[in-house]
Amino acid sequence: MTTVERTISNQVNDVFEDIKQTRNTDYINNFWKDLSHDEKSLEETWSQVKKIMSDGKISYLYKEMIYVAVSIMNNCDYCIHTHTLAARKAGMTDEMYSEFMQVVLLANKTNAMATAMSCEVDERFDVSKRKEV
Amino acid sequence: MTTVERTISNQVNDVFEDIKQTRNTDYINNFWKDLSHDEKSLEETWSQVKKIMSDGKISYLYKEMIYVAVSIMNNCDYCIHTHTLAARKAGMTDEMYSEFMQVVLLANKTNAMATAMSCEVDERFDVSKRKEV
Amino acid sequence: MTTVERTISNQVNDVFEDIKQTRNTDYINNFWKDLSHDEKSLEETWSQVKKIMSDGKISYLYKEMIYVAVSIMNNCDYCIHTHTLAARKAGMTDEMYSEFMQVVLLANKTNAMATAMSCEVDERFDVSKRKEV
Amino acid sequence: MTTVERTISNQVNDVFEDIKQTRNTDYINNFWKDLSHDEKSLEETWSQVKKIMSDGKISYLYKEMIYVAVSIMNNCDYCIHTHTLAARKAGMTDEMYSEFMQVVLLANKTNAMATAMSCEVDERFDVSKRKEV
Amino acid sequence: MTTVERTISNQVNDVFEDIKQTRNTDYINNFWKDLSHDEKSLEETWSQVKKIMSDGKISYLYKEMIYVAVSIMNNCDYCIHTHTLAARKAGMTDEMYSEFMQVVLLANKTNAMATAMSCEVDERFDVSKRKEV
Amino acid sequence: MTTVERTISNQVNDVFEDIKQTRNTDYINNFWKDLSHDEKSLEETWSQVKKIMSDGKISYLYKEMIYVAVSIMNNCDYCIHTHTLAARKAGMTDEMYSEFMQVVLLANKTNAMATAMSCEVDERFDVSKRKEV
Q1: Does residue A107 lie in a domain region?
Q2: D-chain residues within 8 Å CB-CB of A128?
Q3: I want to staple D111 with a disulfide (CB 3.0 to 4.6 A). Which of A31, B7, C74, F124 is the partner?
C-alpha cells in the first residue's frame, strides 16, 4: 500500500523534514509515507528510530545488523531490504554480511534442534531454580 | 529431554573433550548431551559452532548478540538463556544489553507495522525491478 | 497463484453462489477461486467462515479485528488486506484501527520481552502447580 | 528468571506503587519484577500498558482479547496465562472464550492456506495497484 | 494447565472412551483432558484427528512426521513430545528421524536464505504471471 | 533480488553445471543465481541439498513434502512454490496434496490450542522427569 500524500499536515511535514535532514536525503521511504495516515504513530516511531538506532554503547552498524537479523526471522521483506542496504552503507562489507548470515543460520538451526529435542535449561544456568535450592 | 550419557562412544567423547578444552570448562551443556544420540549431527554442529562463532570480521561478542536476537524471535528458551549468558561473559554490559533489547524491540515493532500496512519496497531500493526498466 | 476457474463443478458453483448471496456481491475473492481446486476443502472452509465469523457473543466487528491480529502475526499479506478492509466495512474507524494497532504492537513487544527474560508464570496464576501443592 | 528485588530504587518503587494502585492489588507480577533491572524500560513499558490498555474506542475487554490473540501466535506462555486471566476478570465468559478461540483458529487456518496457495491480493483490493492504472 | 476432570459429562465420556478404544490404551493425554472444558471443541478436534491422521494416500507414519515438522516450526513443546513418540511407535527408526531432522533443518535454512535475499519466484514457476502474458 | 550473473567464476560455474546435470535441466533457479554472490555458501548449500534430499530411509517424495510443510510454516513464498512443484513432479497427486494439507492444518490447529491452553507434557511422556523420580 504505497500512498503518495498530497496534502500533508504541518505535523507530518515536520517529521518528513526531520527525516530528510537527519538522513541527508530528499527521499521519504514508503514506510514513512504509509505511516503518515496516523500522525501520532509517525511522530513516535520516527522519534524512536532516531534515538534508538544512533551510535551508543553499540555502534550504528551493529544495531543495523541486529535489526536485519530480527527482520529476517519476522520475514519482513520491506525491512530486510531497507535495513540490509542501510547496514551496507554504514560499512558492512561482503565478508561481514557473509559472517552475519552464517551466525543467523547457525542460531536458526540450533534453535530448531533445541526445540525439537525439548532441551532443558541446565540447572547451573537457571538463576531462579538455583535460588529456590 | 536431558539425557546423561552413560556409555559414550569414542566419537562422542572426542567432541566432548574438544568442547571442554575450547571453552575451558569441565561442564558439557544439556544441548550437547541431548545431541550425542546422533554422533554425526553432534560432530557437525559443534564444528560449525566452533568455526562460525569465533572472532572474524565480526567479533565474537557481536556474533553472540546476533545469535540471541535470532533466538528471541524463535522463542527458543534454551538458546536465549545460554547465549545471553555467553554474551555477558564476552563483555556485554547492562547498558549494551539494554541498547540491544531496544533495537530488537524496535525492529520487531516496525516489522509488524510494515506487515500490517503491506508496505511495498520502494522502487529505488528494488534492484531487480530497476533492472527490468 | 490466481486461477480463473473456467468450468466450475456444480458443487463449487453452489458455494460460489452462497458466498455471493451471503456477502451481497458478485465478486468471488481469489482465495475462494484458488481453493476451488479442492471442492471438499472449499465447502468446509466456507461453511466454517460463514458460521464462526457471524455475530455471536462476540460481534462480527471484533471477530474481524481478532482475525486481523492473527493474520499480522502470521505475516499473511492476503488475509491482512482482505480482513482489514472487512473490518473497516463493518465499522472500524481510523481511531479504532489506531487503538487496535497499539494493542497489537504492545502485546508483540511485551511478548518478546517476557521471552527474552524467560519470565516464569507466577505461582498464583499457575493453576496446575497450585494443585500439586 | 524470577528475581525478587531486595533493594528497590525509588524509581522502581514508584512504578510498583502505581501498578498496585491502578490494579487494586498488593501483588507485583513476575514480569514487572524481572523488568525492574532496567528502570527506564520498566517505567516506559508500564506507562504504555496503562495508557494503551485502558478503555477507549475499543473497550478494555476486547483489548485484552486482541492481546491474547497476539500472545498465542507468538507462543508467549507467560503473556497467554496472565492476559487470559485478565480477560476473564474483565468479563470474558466461557462462551466468549470459545468464540474467540474459534476465530483465532480459523484465521490461523486460512492464513496457512493462503500462504500455501501463494494467494495474490485481488486487484480490486490493492489500493496502490489501482492507483498505478 | 493440567486439569483432572472429576465429574465428566456423558458427551466428554464418550469421546474419552473412543480415544481409549481407538488407541488401545487406558490413558487420556493432558491435551484431551484440558480440552474437555469445551465439549464441542473436544468432539470436533478428536473427530478430525481420528479421520485425518489415519492411513490414506499418505501412510499414518508419514502423517505423524509431517505433524512433527509443523510442531517444531510452531515451537509447540507438547505436540513435539507426543507426536515424536507417536511417530517412533509407528515405526520411525533412529535413521529415519535423523534424515527427517536433516530435511527440517535444511528447509529451515534455505527458507531463511531465500527470505534474506528476497528471492523472487522464477517466471517459469509462477502460474498466474505466465497466464497474464 | 533476481540477479543475472554475467561473468561467472569457475567455482560458480562448476556448481551450476552440477545442478543442471543432477536435475537434468538447462535452467538455474533464481535461488541459486542469487546465492552465487557468495561462492562458498553456494557450494555448501547445493552440496547439502544434493545429499540430504536424495532417497534414503525416507524417500525423496516424502522429503519434499516435509520440506514444503516447513516452508509453509516459515511463510517462504519462494520455497513453497518451487518445492510444491518438485513434490508434484516426484509423484504427489492431488489426493496426496489434499491429505498433506489436512495434516499441516490439523497440526497447526492443535499446536495453537495446546499453546493457548498451556498444555503440560504428561509425566509419562517426559523422559527426564521420570528419571529424576
Answers
A1: yes
A2: 1-3
A3: C74
CB atoms within 10 A of CB B95: 12
Q: Which residues of C touch A41 (CB under 8 A)?
A: 98, 101
For residues D57 and C99, give the distance between their C-alpha atoms in angstroms, rounded to a whole number.
Answer: 7
Indicate yes or no: CB of B115 within 8 angstroms of CB of C72.
yes
Q: Clarify whether residues C64 and C40 are in a common domain.
A: no
Element at C128 (helix H, strand E)? helix C127-132
| Rg (alpha carbons) of chain A, rounded to whole number | 20
Q: How far is CA F5 from the centre of its chain?
A: 25
CA distance A96 to A87: 10
Using alpha carbons, select from C95, A37, C63 the residue that is nearest to residue D57.
C95
Nearest CA in chain A to C120: A128
Q: Cα–Cα distances in Å, from A123 out to B79, E81, F125, F132?
A: 14, 21, 21, 13
Q: Are residues C42 and C60 in the same domain?
A: no
How close B117 comes to chain E (CA, Å)? Answer: 18
Kind plus residue range of the DSSP H or E element containing D46: helix D39-52
Chain E CB contacts of B75 below 8 Å: 75
* Alpha carbons within 13 A on the beta-carbon side of E13: 5
Give F98-110 pLDDT, tens digit per residue: 999 999 999 999 9
Q: What is the pLDDT of residues E34-87, one digit of tens each?
A: 999 999 999 999 999 999 999 999 999 999 999 999 999 999 999 999 999 999
Distances (CA, A) of D41 to B83, C84, C112, D12, D48: 22, 32, 13, 10, 10
Measure Cα distances from F96 to D98, E63, E65 in Å: 32, 11, 15
From the number of C-beta atoms within 10 Å of its C-beta (0-12, 13-18, 19+), residue C35 rates as buried
Looking up residue C112, the CATH number of its domain turns out to be 1.20.1290.10
In total, how many domains does chain C have?
A: 2
Instruction: Note whether B81 contacts C109, CB cutoff 8 Å.
Output: no
Structural domain for D32, as ranges: 8-52
Judge if ipTM > 0.90.
yes
Taking the C-alpha atoms of residue D94 and residue D105, their distance in angstroms, rounded to an integer, is 16
Query: What is the distance of C-alpha E6 from the center of its chain?
Result: 28
Number of other CB atoms surrounding residue A50 within 10 Å? 14
Assigned domain for B39 exists: yes
Average pLDDT over residues D104-129: 91
Is the entire prediction scored with pTM above 0.80?
Answer: yes
Write out the three cell numbers for F133: 523420580
